[in-house]
Amino acid sequence: MSDTPPAENQRPLRTRRRLFVVVGCIALLVVGPYIVSRIRSPGRRVRVYGESERAAATDTLPGLLRIVTYNIAHGRGAIDDNWQGTNTAKRNRIEQIAQFLAGTDADVVVLNEVDFDSTWSGHQNQAAAIAAEAGFAYRVEQRNLDFRFLYGSWKFGNAILSKYPIIDAQVVDLPPHADWEDWLVGRKRGVVATLQLPDQQRVRVLAVHLEHRREVNRVRGAKAIVDVAKSSEVPLIVAGDLNSTPPGFPDARTTADGENAMAILQESGLFQWRPRAAPTPSDMTYSSTNPTQVIDWILIPSNATFVAYEVLAGDLSDHRAVSATLRFAE
């Protein structure tokens, strides 16, 4: 008597095997690009680009530096939905942002929420597009979130655009909101770039976007910023959306222990900024259409002074841009 199962009993087994193979292939196609993107993400967190032959002359007077910081909100405009609006409209808005920044005559621009390859903005490298249109020969791209699936990608973070050569750039790790979130998609980080100014002078610029969800996250980020400032004798400028406002300002937040991120930066004695007290409506940076908070900042080192400072009105983003001109001590 044969032990071989009847053919009719083998058919369901073969069908199940084929089904498992098909499901496995589909899962690999969907999840595979995600796994690869997350494995490769650490090596792509910071990239420096320079085109010295395209370097634009700057009309800044010797000893002065013009810097602008702008959270461009992925090019979505003043609304709060990244998926709303067409890709064409977002590309047109990025071109308008570039023209706006060119009009500021800034030597250095810090961008937050800038896309490098995201589905919701039409897979445009917005930092590259703005740099090319506005005349910045050098740029640093730093990714906060970096992952993709088969038919979608989300790669965005901070960027520094410069008319002066960028001779070094390093990622600045900030404490994550949650370890599992960092592992799955990434987290907010910063990037510090060293710029070569005329007359052999150097300055470091830290582009940073602190967590919006809890002040305790921002407090930890502020302590990391202080550590960066202390790590080198080269002066440090901090610029970006810090999502924090000092005690006494509208909508100031503190932790359960009474800590505040901006207060920690102030108490370090390493920075100065505007406004220091009693902000006026023209000082507010968020939102662009109904400004009630000061959360976008340019912090300059103690050996520099403000020559000019201004919050720039506009509705190309839900944030307003901040512009400052500073002079370094001899």
UniProtKB/TrEMBL annotation:
Domain Endonuclease/exonuclease/phosphatase, first and last residues per copy: 68-319
Keyword Kinase among record annotations: no
Gene3D superfamilies, alphabetized: Endonuclease/exonuclease/phosphatase
Keyword field: Endonuclease, Exonuclease, Hydrolase, Membrane, Nuclease, Transmembrane, Transmembrane helix
Protein's UniProt keywords contain Hydrolase: yes
Highest taxon of the lineage: Bacteria
GO MF annotations in UniProt: endonuclease activity; exonuclease activity
GO terms under cellular component: membrane
Residues passing through the membrane, by range: 19-36
GO biological process, one term: GPI anchor biosynthetic process
Name of one Pfam family that matches: Exo_endo_phos
PANTHER family documented for this protein: CALCOFLUOR WHITE HYPERSENSITIVE PROTEIN PRECURSOR, PGAP2-INTERACTING PROTEIN
Protein name: Endonuclease/Exonuclease/phosphatase family protein
Organism for this UniProt entry: Symmachiella dynata
Taxonomic placement: Bacteria, Pseudomonadati, Planctomycetota, Planctomycetia, Planctomycetales
